[in-house]
Specification:
The complex is a heterodimer. By secondary structure, chain A is mainly β. Chain A has no helices and ten strands. In chain A, the strands form two sheets. Chain A has a six-stranded mixed β-sheet with strand order 2-10-9-4-5-6, with no helix packed on it. Chain B is globular, with a radius of gyration of 13 Å. Chain B is an all-beta fold. In chain B, the strands form two sheets. In chain B, strands 2, 4, 5, 6, 9, 10 and 11 form a seven-stranded mixed β-sheet that branches. In chain B, strands 1-3-8-7 form a four-stranded antiparallel β-sheet, with no helix packed on it. Chain B is built from no helices and eleven strands. Classes of the chains: A mainly beta, B mainly beta.
Chain lengths: ~110, ~120
């Protein structure tokens, strides 16, 4: 099975900061990398698909990059509503493995 | 608009069974693969199972293989998860989610609000 890791596990940020979260796959997954945002008590929300394609309606301050095994999610100008937990996921295999998550708080 | 509404979550004793349902609306249900994803209290997301649009193909996480069964009724626009031999490790919020297809690289583009299963 493909293993997904994320770093850091948590980080503190301020409004206006540029934040970068990394995700690593245990094997080459091409561009089959997804990013979700989850707020407490709510379902995850799709942000990025295909490693770098922004889902419709997601603000342009979110961007994704990477391919193969190393990926990153960048929030260019943190807004109050962006404090949340972020998960990566591989859709390369039929295990659809999620990363452990990165909590971004104040 | 796309809506997914889970139901069936409950408090059950270890070893018992439970069936979850996910009612879909606002899209052509029979055209999409559907997933169950769970989240234990305070933990991350764990993919559970997927069923192809026609019900012909199913995959399961190793942690539930042989105990859980995913199914669907396309005429009723409903997804199911039959859970048997439940243990405390199955305690979680269970979400159903739609695969958006190749246009979103297989991402889960719509999620339900979740239903809580407590095994105790």
């Amino acid at each position: 099975d493909i293993q997904m890791t994320q770093s850091p596990s948590s980080l503190s940020a301020s409004v206006g900061d540029r934040v970068t979260i990394t995700c690593r796959a245990s094997q080459n997954i091409g561009l089959s990398l997804i990013w979700y945002q989850q707020k407490p008590g709510m379902a995850p929300k799709l942000l990025i698909h295909g490693a770098s394609s922004l889902q419709s309606g997601v603000p342009l301050r979110f961007s994704g990059s990477g391919s193969g095994t190393d990926f990153s999610l960048t929030i260019s100008n943190m807004q109050p509503e962006d404090f949340a937990t972020y998960f990566c996921q591989e859709t390369y295999s039929h295990s659809y493995t999620f990363g452990p998550g990165t909590k971004v708080d104040v | 608009q796309v809506q997914l509404v889970e139901s069936g979550g409950d408090v059950v004793q270890p070893g018992r069974s439970l069936r979850l349902s996910c009612a879909a609306s606002g899209f052509s249900f029979s055209s999409y693969a559907m997933h169950w994803v769970r989240q234990a209290p305070g933990k991350g997301l764990e993919w559970v199972a997927v069923i192809w649009y026609d019900g012909g193909t199913k995959y399961y996480a190793d942690s539930v293989k042989g105990r859980f069964t995913i199914s669907r009724d396309n005429s009723a626009k409903t997804l199911y998860l039959q859970m048997n031999s439940l243990t405390a490790e199955d305690t979680a919020v269970y979400y159903c989610a739609r695969t958006g297809g190749i246009s979103v690289a297989g991402a889960f583009d719509y999620w339900g609000q979740g239903t809580l299963v407590t095994v105790s």
